[in-house]
Amino acid sequence: MAFPQPRPQAPQLPQHLLRTVDCQQGAVRAVRFNADGNYLLSCGSDKSLKLWSVSRGTLLKTYSGHGYEVLDADGSYDNSQLCSCSSDKTVILWDVATGQVTRKLRGHAGKVNCVQFNEEATVILSGSIDGTVRCWDTRSRRFEPIQILDEARDGISSVKVAQHELLTGSVDGRVRRYDLRMGQLHVDFISSPITCVCFSQDGQCTLSSSLDSTVRLLDKSTGEMLGEYTGHKMKGYKLDCCLSSKDTHVLSCSEDGHVYCWDLVEGSLSLKLPVGKAVVQSLSFHPTETCLLTAMEGRVQVWGAEPEETEEDTMAS
């Protein structure tokens, strides 16, 4: 006789505040998990990039070398390198362990909004207010980019890479997907300036947020709109959106001090997370677990599905 299957658990959401990190680097412009989710990177308006332990909230290293505020950062798959970009028009490749600048990449004509490694960390992709995406070889000693993508008619706000595909969002209201293997470009017109783009974990969809206070889920191959998520406020700031680690929920920052979390399929609001009274500047979802980072003013918040056991709880049990 077959036993009935256990009911599938409703996916948990990161609704418990586990800790707040006072970054002491001016306003935190972006917060990012590293590749395995054990560390976080905070980008400061005081020109510094900082590396923290997520579980302890302790500062591990400070990276100084930018001439103006740091706007985005990414960690390599093996945690040996970081890349960051800044309003100073440069991209920096860092050695994690020593904190030294490995290379400073110049060429953008304006502030650099977004930066990402490819999966092997052999290439850094950077997107700038100058309307270009530049591809830099991390192993070469040459100072020129290996490729410049200049199709956008306005600034690039967001860049993501997955395998052989590159996704960009621009203030010109277009989401562009470059198939680097086939040499093809696919364009989806959203009509409102794009603030953030990302791929779904299964690689079938793209998510984009724009200044009409709407997050949209598109089918990657057909461009068909699969979902529209609204209720949050995004009118004047470049704020992040993302998908949960299992593609069950869509999340977005908001100018009203909350993170909005919608059910991907239903489109209904599952959670409105009260972060604080200011703009939620940035967010990052853990690569595998139900854990979320948010940034507001000078602080980073770590959120989890369960409240963390304190030492007293452990003693009691």
Q: Tally the beta strands.
A: 28
The chain-level mean pLDDT equals 94
The CATH homologous superfamily is termed YVTN repeat-like/Quinoprotein amine dehydrogenase
Question: Helical element count?
Answer: 1
- The total number of structural domains is 1
Radius of gyration: 19 Å
Low-confidence stretches: none
Largest sheet: 4 strands, antiparallel
**Quaternary form:** single chain
Apparent shape: globular
Beta-strand residue percentage: over 45%
| CATH architecture title | 7 Propeller
Short description:
The protein has about 325 residues and is an all-beta fold. It contains one helix and 28 strands.
Structure overview:
By secondary structure, this protein is an all-beta fold. It has one domain (16-304): Methylamine Dehydrogenase, Chain H, CATH 2.130.10. It contains 1 helix and 28 strands. The chain has one helix at 311-316; strands at 16-22, 28-33, 39-44, 48-53, 59-64, 70-75, 81-86, 90-95, 101-106, 112-117, 123-128, 133-137, 147-149, 156-162, 165-170, 174-179, 184-189, 194-199, 205-210, 214-219, 225-230, 241-243, 249-252, 258-263, 269-274, 282-285, 291-296, 299-304. The strands form 7 sheets. Strands 1-28-27-26 form a 4-stranded antiparallel sheet, with no helix packed on it. A hairpin with a 5-residue loop joins strand 8 and strand 9. The model has no long low-confidence stretch (mean pLDDT 94).
